[in-house]
Amino acid sequence: MTASTPPAAHLAQLNVATLRHPLDDPRIAPFVELLDPVNAAADDAPGFVWRLVEDGAADATGLRPAGEDVIVNLTVWETQEALWDFAYRSGHLEVMRRRREWFERHVEAHLVLWWVPAGHLPTVDEALERLADLRAHGPSPRAFTFASAYSAAEAAQNLQAIPPAQDDQVVPPARHEQPATSTRATPAGDAAAV
Amino acid sequence: MEDINAIAMLQDPVRRRLYEYVAGQGREVGRNEAAEAAGVARTLAAHHLDKLTEAGLLESGSRRLTGRSGPGAGRPAKVYTRAAAERSVSLPARDYRTAAELLAEAAEEAGLDAGLCAAARRRGEALRGSAAPCGGLEDAMAVLAARGYEPHMEGGAEGVIGEAGAEGAIEEAGAAAVAGQAGEVAPVVRMRNCPFHAVAERFPPLVCGMNLALLEGLLGTDGPVRARMDARPGECCVVVESSKTNDD
After folding, report:
1. Separation in Å, CA A96 to CA A159, A162, B9
2. A112 contacts A129 by C-beta, under 8 angstroms
3. In b/e form, how buried is each residue of B109-130, taking b as 16+ CB within 10 angstroms?
4. A190 contact B CB<8A
5. Could you tell me which residues come within 8 angstroms of residue B77 by beta carbon, excluding any fewer than 6 positions away?
6. What is the pLDDT of residue A157?
7. Which residue, A109, B1, B31, B125, is most buried by CB atoms nearer than 10 A?
8. For residue B74, how many other CB atoms are within 10 A of its CB?
9. Tens of pLDDT along B61-107?
10. Of A33, A91, A188, the CB nearest to B108
11. Chain B residue with Cα closest to A33
């Protein structure tokens, strides 16, 4: 997955899903069976960089940082297009199609995207902050969705326009190789649920 | 009125044959090949292919078809593909797309996936009428072609392994792939065109689920063929396969 000239920014993605039944419930079994093959497909997908995995486990479904019955999915991708193609143009779409069988419908935003410097792996706390930002302030270059996407360049400009809030905040370099955001219409709804 | 002018270009039978041939290949087509398919001389084909490109119905590029490069490889040949832009004309003016997008947005927000799929399945069954479930992959091709899906057979004797993404596609098939043995690819019908493209791109799980349910109703779920979701970039999210290949 490493190109000779890696892009300066990567796209981080968090989504949260509230389980309708516990993971060991037979009604959730079809979802649990899809976890390994779909995660393996993600690991091999073009543009995949990283996904959160619980220590000693194959995935992050055991971590419940956002609530007892809320599973989280935290990933990093080289481009928004790479994430899109995995989420909606791979075996993952089948999981998405059946989402209502397994997950509660969210009234608030449950997917957030943001740019990180290439090489930075977001923490769960950082990811949940971005989701809270999106929920509180709507889409911005700091926290957005497929339907309201910002390019890495726009996000970098935004970071430079305002003084960084935290000292340890990594400011991406001003120059970016990132291609412009696709003009393709993007979904207003869910994304990667696994 | 740009669309009506572009569509009017196709009234010429030679242009129409050329357009339909290029559109039907799903890849770059050279002038010689298109001329041969349309049964006209190369110069005439080139003239019309360029007219179609000017009108925005085709896109052109250049490519060395021989695979050679460097000095002596010759001039790159001009190749054509169908343009991605959608063209439509409605008289009087109608705007079903905005209606579809708004209905899809509301259905997405309200979580109406199950109700939408039930309606789509009923519609598929109604379109099939009293006919028995689709009898085989060839029949399925005809049904799908009539609805604009642009089906094509993949796998079987020809095989698809080796094409980029084929390996991934198998993994992505998830549980269904477990039944298939590596090295042996059963033929499947894939579709180049998504008739619901614009709304499917905005609300993929909702609209792709609707599409699958529609096709299940249309082809039947207990007959010799079955529709299954197997999304891939740039194509319809559904494949149709023989029911015997993947019993689960």
Report:
1. 33, 37, 41
2. no
3. eebbbeebbeebbeebbeebee
4. yes
5. B30, B31, B62, B63, B64, B65
6. 83
7. B31
8. 11
9. 988 766 666 666 677 889 999 999 999 999 999 999 999 999 999 99
10. A188
11. B175
Residues in chain B: 248
Is the Cβ pair A44, B168 closer than 8 Å?
A: yes
d(CA A134, CA B202): 20
Chain A residues inside the 8 Å CB shell of B121: none
| The pLDDT of residue B61 | 92
Helix (H, G, I), strand (E, B) or coil at A83: helix
Beta-ladder partners of A48: A77
Facing residue for A88 by CB, picked from B111, B113, B204: B204
CB contacts < 8 A, A to B, total 85
Question: How much is the pTM?
Answer: 0.81
In chain A, the residue whose alpha carbon lies closest to the alpha carbon of B206 is A97
Q: Please provide residue B71's backbone torsions phi and psi, each rounded to the nearest 5 degrees.
A: -60, 140
Contacts of residue B205, Cβ cutoff 8 Å, sequence gap at least 6:
A88, A93, A96, A97, A99, A189, A190, B113
